[in-house]
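This part of the workshop introduces the protein records we will be handling. Getting from the letters to the tokens is the skill we practise here. An example says more than a description, so a record of this kind follows:
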Amino acid sequence: MAKGKLFIISAPSGAGKSTVLSRVMAQLPGVAFSVSHTTRMPRKGEQDGREYHFVDRTTFTEMIEQGNFLEYADVHGNYYGTSRLAVQEQLEQGLDVILDIDVQGAKIIRDAKEMDAVFVFLTPPDLTELERRLRGRGLDSDETIVQRLKNAHTELRSLGDFDYLIVNEELDEAVRMFESVILAERAKNHRHFTGKDIQTKVFVV
């Protein structure tokens, strides 16, 4: 079985990343989502093991000490981390794995060069639109929104480190673009067939 590809997607909070990912996951076969661990509290509607594995700081610290994370970072005062074993198992199953992490985590994986990965940055059209979206979802206080906007300004400086940039101005277009990135990488890597397989499929009817 051919090994899958790891796709790292980063975005400022409120850019619409969760919506884009849910659409891509529903429409494109052979794609899996890597569920990260976090110490933050679940938001309304979130379920443990679906959006995140929710753990306390003591448990998270123990996992760090045991070397369980491919990457981890402190984001907005909470820890987020990616299980190395979980990602490896999904890739070995031939699945393309989407990893939703911030720019800190993306840099850790990029610099470590432990896994071959494709890096995608999703951004809103501008910071004014980002603020509108953050306020519209009604999840954060004014103080938190101000902090998220400051963080977004910093994160946007990392655009040059990513392989692809998707501007989420129109949702359907952003979804199509991310699907196109995945399909292009599949074609580029010729993962699904050997040369003999291709000849058989083309010439035997």
Summary: The longest strand covers residues 69-75. The radius of gyration is 18 Å. Residues 171-189 form the longest helix (19 residues). The CA atoms of residues 121 and 160 lie 10 Å apart.
